[in-house]
Hints:
Helices cover about 30% and strands about 25% of the residues. The protein is elongated and about 85 Å long. A hairpin with a 2-residue loop joins β1 (about 40-50) and β2. The protein has 2 domains: about 5-185 and about 305-385, Aminopeptidase; about 185-295, Alpha-Beta Plaits (2-Layer Sandwich), CATH 3.30.70. The chain has helices at about 5-15, 25-35, 105-125, 150-160, 210-225, 270-285, 310-325, 340, 365-385; strands at about 40-50, 50-60, 70-75, 95, 100, 130-140, 165-170, 180, 185, 185-195, 200, 240-245, 255, 255-265, 290-295, 305, 330, 350, 365. The structure holds zinc ion (ZN).
Amino acid sequence: MLDARDAVQLTQALIRCPSVTPEEGGALRLIADILGAAGFETHLLRFSTDGTPDVDNLYARFGRGNPHLLFAGHTDVVPVGDEAKWSVPPFSGEIRDGKVYGRGATDMKGGVAASIAAALRFIDRHPNFGGSIGFLITGDEEGPAINGTVKVLDWMQDNGETFDHCILGEPTNPEQLGDMIKIGRRGSLTGHIVVQGKQGHVAYPHLTDNPIPGMMKLVQGVLAEPLDHGTVHFGATNCEFTTLDVGNKATNVIPNEVRATFNIRFNDVWTPETLEAEIRKRLDQAAGNSIRYEARFEPTNAIAFMTQPGPFVEKMSAAIEAMTGIKPQLSTTGGTSDARFICKYGPVIEFGLIGKTMHQIDEHADVAELEALAKIYEGAIERYFAS
Length: 387
Ligand SMILES: [Zn+2]
């Protein structure tokens, strides 16, 4: 019989649900059953969009009072890769040498399990705590992220379900539990540049227009000056060219066009719109009236956002320090996460397991680390509802 108040057992049970995006694999149903039995109101939500697979999600809430502390996460996992390379079957949840192995152990079934165990233990002790604890668990974080958290948040708004603060249990710690809370994330903007020339024979350059030197000028124009120097909680905005393509196999032909792609990870100085305008300005300046080019920016939902440090962040920090003895760094580093959607509805911070083996062969989480994370979440819930 599964004890859902035990984060390790629950992690193992969730790993045994083969929930590679977009498969639900039984993971959300298992959580819905557990939370339902503990007195949560549960809603399994299936969303569809043309051109993407249907995805199941779960929203659950205990209590109707305020404040409402929401835990967010995902039960979908990335594919296992070459299964033969795993030391244990990737959906076995086997424990070896004090570690739970399996796809999703750290990213992020372990985090989901720890938050559920913590909430159930807190509710056991304080059944009439007066506030609400919610769970927003998606099955579409590792995939297109279209029928997942975004739609659950829409559904919540349509149904009058608000929250006051959110903890997203993604793996945030680089080396040891307690290293890092993410209080925000950088935004991401991708752009493409095409420079047009005129193809021809290298021996007759006056009859041609080589687009390569023009592209070099544009690239330098974009990169010459830093976009900013960082802000209090963010590093400097960074632009990286990721490819530069001519595709010309011939050594005696001047090519017709050159293409380049770049990606910018940006801080809270910018919005995607202001950043696009700045890049276009730099391109225009570099191009003058001699370089013929076009620039196109991909639509992005990855804005830069941040939850201001304050009582909520301090309570989480205190719970971490009480358990680990480490004062966590408040960081905005790393890639994007579903926090970029959640932040539009309320303050969100991220804290979870150690991220070292996520998406890898032999992904695993320490048994002791899972238990400690559950205690940290429990401490955070205690502190949250104490005032
Ligand atoms: Zn994840």
